[in-house]
Amino acid sequence: MNEKLAACVRLLDEKIIARHGRDRQLFRQLDEAQRKLGLLSGDRPFCPFARPHFLTRKKYMEISRAAEIIAAAFETMTRAALENEDVMRELDLTEREEEMARIDPGYQGVCNSSRLDSFICGDDFKFLEYNAETPAGIIDQMQIEKVLEMIPEVKEFLDGIRHFRPRPHEKLLAALLADYREFGGRKEHPNIAIVDWRGVSTFTEFEVLKEFFESKGNPTVIADPREMEYDGRVLRAGDFEIDIFYKRVLIHEFQDEFEPDNPFSNAYRDGRVFMANSFRTKIPHKKASLAIASDERFQSLFSGEQIEMIRKHIPWTRRVREMKTVYHGREIDLLEHLRREREKFLLKPNDDYGGSGIVLGWETAESDWERALETALQGSFVAQERAAVEKINFPVYTEDEIRPAELLIDFDPFLFRGRVEGGLVRLSSSALVNVAQGGGETALIVLE
User: Fold this and answer.
1) Nearest by Cα to 128 from 363, 377, 345
2) CB neighbour class for 3 (10 Å; exposed up to 12, middle 13-18, buried from 19)
3) How confident is the prediction for the chain on average, in pLDDT?
4) Residue 235 CB neighbour total at 10 angstroms
5) Is the separation of the CB atoms in 190 and 218 below 8 Å?
6) Could you give the CA distance from residue 31 to residue 47 in angstroms, rounded to a whole number?
7) Residue 217: which of 277, 172, 173 has the closest Cα?
8) What is the pTM of this model?
9) Burial classification of residue 363, based on how many CB atoms lie within 10 Å of its CB (0-12 exposed, 13-18 middle, 19 or more buried)
10) What confidence tier does 201 reach under pLDDT thresholds 50, 70, 90?
11) Element (H, E) at 139
């Protein structure tokens, strides 16, 4: 952000803190609004912040361009994995995951909706993970805006400056309808089923999406996958005929629950239901996809432009195993290097979410790191080079006061059919910047 805009934002923070430092009534109103709007992690309102995060149009477009090029590289890698056993083996899919990924979903693109999670540090940024399977938080932007505009200084600031507010929920519906048409769907207003387990923490998000989809003329239900019935022609949730199966249930959880012969899988194999995201997204969703992208052995898969963006914006990543590999131009023994340089690396499960199972080498004792490496060798893990993340001052409210806090921040752009629209902005005092791990979220405003 240029110095003039940065000064404007600092002044906004000072005004908010000066005028509402101990405004307990406002704090209660903000929390109550979040509860009504479904902005909760469990029972906790997850936006304890007193303003949006601001990006300049220039920075937003720079991140968007890089994200779109890298997302296209993952689409390329997915097609390569379906044709090349060496690539598929590197990803470490289960036998059943691979079987379902090989079924043609009926439309060309791999990811209808996806999200790249990134850290920004000064002018640089790194994409740490690709949530290709079932990105959450798409309605948060719209809902958090409603909360923050209850703060008079925020509304006054936005009224006085040219800005853009992303609308990822609108792009989601447009993407679903576009791929539904490519699949062969003909209904002007197809029936949509939002599918996940009953009682998941994101259920309130589904309710908001249901309301939005229906406001655009699309009959919508929130359905549990255990409610599905298939007669060989139509997939149903109760009496509701499903045209668009908007899959929010995780593939590995679904496959753990059901045998291969189940109503939904059978309808999908028969090409009788349009699903987004499809089973094929498990390929780029695996964290080993970043190992393929950053490994010189697989560069022939990608275009020159894609290689350039990967080198700049994806941290060095490898599957954890006994192997020789290349680290920034020199050959290393991977395990020896990870033991010797643990403060430069973290370990991640190949397929998990919410920060689960991540071990940060720079916060881990040598003996615990050794145990973590043994666990990683026995399972399916990646090692990733630590990415720098900047801390920024942000006004945070509690029950009693607003105060400035120095927080780590990430920006996670959403992509719909490969094009960026907005993203999550998450802040945390800990190195795991994740709402599920106690962090928070605010809205994004792009300043013109």
Assistant:
1) 345
2) exposed
3) 94
4) 24
5) yes
6) 8
7) 173
8) 0.94
9) middle
10) confident
11) none
